[in-house]
Amino acid sequence: MKGKKGILYAVLLLLGIVLFCIGGFIIKGEELKSVSGAFIGIGAGLFGMSMAQIITLIIADKNPSYKRKMDIETKDERNIFIGNKAKAKAFDVMGVVLGILMLIYALINVDLWITLLLVGAYLLVYGVYIVYLNKYTKEM
């Protein structure tokens, strides 16, 4: 494991451990329970992601043929097209799911700020979609 990526993932791994420990052992009290949970979640996520990337880098360093294969697969136009098509389908499903979730939140009288936060996220996602749709239309 060499290079800038290895150092970055090692730092993120340590940061994940620190955040996990802060959330689990340092932050106490009922009023800070959600903050503690967020620290634990972010720390565990960083730890898991960093550990997976470090293991991948170690395997790639020990096995050059595996590294070549992975480089080809990540840069292959067919795989990129398949990934983009899957993201497009997921976006279509997300629009429907978020719409249904907004309706459910409104019907069960969830706090208004939660519903508005969901509506804001929904509008942000579709705003980004419109911006990129306009950008790509002009490019092609």
Can I get a quick summary?
With 140 residues, the protein is mainly alpha-helical. The chain has 5 helices and no strands.
Question: How do the strands and helices of this protein lay out in sequence?
Answer:
Elements: H1 3-26, H2 33-62, H3 64-75, H4 77-107, H5 112-139
Average predicted confidence as pLDDT: 89
Counting DSSP E segments of at least 2 residues, the number of strands comes to 0
Shape: flat
Order of helices and strands: HHHHH
Rg over CA atoms, rounded to whole Å, is 21 Å
Largest sheet: none
The percent of residues in helical segments reads over 70%
- Tell me the span between the first and last alpha carbons: 41 Å
Counted by DSSP, the helix tally is 5
Description:
- This protein has 140 residues and is an all-alpha fold.
- The chain contains five helices and no strands.
- The protein is flat and about 55 Å long.
